[in-house]
Amino acid sequence: MLEVLDLTKKYRNTLANDHLNFRVEPGEIAVLIGPNGAGKSTAIKCIAGLLRFNGNIAVCGHPNKTLEAKRSFGYIPEIPAPIETLTVYEHLEFIARAYKVENWKDKARDLLERMELDDKRKKLGKELSKGMQQKLSICCALLPEPRVILMDEPLIGLDPHAIKELKTILIELREKGCAILVSTHMLDSVREFWDKALIMMNGQIAAVRTRAEIESTGEDLEQLFFEITEGTQTGGAVL
Amino acid sequence: MRAILYLTRKEIKNGVIDLLHHPAKLVLYLFLAVILGISLIDGSQKEVRAPGSYLDVGILHGVYFAILLFITVPSVLSGLKSGATFFRMSDVNFLFVSPISPKKILAYGLVKQMASTLLMMVFLLFYAGMAINLFGVTVWQVLALVGGIALTVFTVQMITLLVYSYSNGRPERAEWIRTVLYAETGMIVAFVMSNFWFHGANQQALYAALASPYLEFAPVVGWIKGLAFAVINADAARTALFAAINALTVAGSILLFANSNADYYEDVLQSTETTFELKQSVKNGKTSGVRVKETKLRKVTDTGIWHGWGASVFFFKHIREMKRRNRIPFLRTSSFVLVGINVLLALVLQKLGSSGGDGMPASMMMVIALSTSCYLQFFFNVAGDWTLELMKPYIYLVPEKPFAKLFWATLTTLLTPVVDGVLVFAVLGVMLRTGPAIAVICMFIYISMGCIYTAGNVLSQRMFGQLVNKGLLMFAYMIILLILLLPAAGLSLAVYLLVKDLPPVFLGIPVIISNILVSVGVFAACRNVLSSAEMNS
């Protein structure tokens, strides 16, 4: 379970995240949606422990920078950055050893097959295309079987097969009880599987909706998104 | 053309406004300007000493020629692979697709490049005081030398573009250009060495060889050196001759490039994108601005890291990567280059010493070799495994204690100087017959300097993080290194003053102890540096 309380991040004079509060429960896929510059990536990076911030973030009950929390989450960055001189297989071995994953070989094989990277095992990181780098990044994040998954624009650069496979994997992980947070600025890409939508604007969460709420009230999420992001409603207020 | 003029005007204006909005940056630039001004004024007021009290001008000729070659050869070689660029991504996105003549855009790029080259060369003027003191040259003569380097940087960039455009997709042409380049460099070295050898193999012969006017007829680097020294010597005829040759070279390169390949956009696109990606990653805090050198990797035959569990896997990952770059881990090409340079240096010092009578003591030669090696190690250390590891997110994400990650991720960077030091000083110890004590002390000083460089790097990351301005980061790193080395200097001086009749080589022991203690202290103080990617907060 992921819990974010009063998350505030300031870069010099820019307030990138302004008192964010939200929870992602086990077995739930939450999507952080918002236009470019809304503060989605910054929030994900703060949760992943890459940036310093004010507030409290707990991953499975542990402060996000503790070793227990780091063991519990997997992070897929927006821009994949493979290690140029390691092969695909060695990336997974590296992660398995770093995260102390026992019996990792079968899990690695399964992930590589699902992402159609099994024939690229001996390819070096620098020889991979951008899409393959992203697939490898996903495999690395999922190998330690995290209970919380953080994805920063994960579908960008993937081919249709990988998009379909990633969506299937996300749904499987949800069924296994993982809490998943996905940031994106493309509503269409997450339409099929989101459970909770957090709409961000100007560093704040401007609205929170669950799928059940939307279905019961008949509200249109896309319309709500554009109302908030195009300024027809008061940005900042939680609706 | 109006659009380009408008763009230039706005860029200058906004640059000034931006500087005014960042007072810290402005203060730093003003501080640097004042220091530079003081050193130049001080240099211009220096009394002229007796001619014999300065170093031979042949050394200045040699060092200057080496700098020009060092700028030229790698740049042209890289041009054979990927071209060069002085355009930015915004130029590609806005200007290249606009209905403005490509030649005008080229002119705009060239003018901007000239301006930035001149700005970069201002920093070279910090060496003015040293040149004035050592060689007795005037401030104006130093300006001529710096101007020559600026001209080289500019000309080489132009030639690199031309070389890429001429050889792109044609390996036989690339091979031909490479052969010409190596042949010219080889001929220059052969000329100097043969002149030195056949004219007595002494100091005077070496200086005379380095200052030979014949060298000034070597294409491009020779012509530029010829121009700089003709200005220094107030030789109007040679100044006019070399100025004309250089002007023809630059104008010819521009004309050839513009006429032979009007569609040059493709030629500059790849390197512009590479430069852009590098700058973006620096801005995102992913690299320290070190361009990862394209090293040729060995063919992948086996795959696996095999060892390590938790934080220690960073060390074994580095070993795996080393094996992929070189057959034996820790033995890099630079290790052999270091040994080669030191052996050559020792041979020259032996030869020079023996021509003067008693010869230079072996321990003195070791000290010179040690200083040279430590200086070179600074550059080898800049792109160590540790620095490269900071570019990836794993070092921050792996659930291990920050200090354990810091230790294991810096271990190969700390061990590499151990291998280099043992290799270099064992070879020199045998060659110069210094005895084991001196060789071992030199080894340990070299190793302890490796610790200080790495500790200084860790500390500069902790204090300044990944500053976007590479120049400022390097400046800060140097200042930190100087401060970290102060205890070693102080301790060594204290031992020298307190202990009578101590053989000079033993003054190195306090240096070793101090460097290692300071490094351990820095590591302990920065033990949590890897708890976040924002290391300086």
From TrEMBL, chain A:
GO MF, one term, reads:
ATP binding
Source species:
Caproiciproducens faecalis
Provide the protein name. Answer: ABC transporter ATP-binding protein
Write the record's keywords in alphabetical order, separated by commas.
Answer: ATP-binding, Nucleotide-binding, Transport
One Pfam annotation, family name?
ABC_tran
InterPro entries in the cross-refs: AAA+_ATPase, ABC_transporter-like_ATP-bd, ABC_transporter-like_CS, ABC_Transporter_VariousFunc, P-loop_NTPase
Q: Which residues form the signal peptide?
A: none
Domain ABC transporter, residue spans: 2-227
UniProtKB/TrEMBL annotation, chain B:
- Could you list the residue ranges that cross the membrane? 20-41, 61-80, 118-136, 142-164, 176-198, 236-258, 331-350, 362-386, 406-431, 437-460, 472-499, 505-526
Q: Which domain of life is it from?
A: Bacteria
The record's section on InterPro entries has: Put_ABC_export (IPR031584)
* Name of the protein in its database record: ABC exporter domain-containing protein
Please provide the record's keywords in A-Z order.
Membrane, Transmembrane, Transmembrane helix
Species per Swiss-Prot/TrEMBL record = Caproiciproducens faecalis
Answer yes or no on keyword Transcription.
no
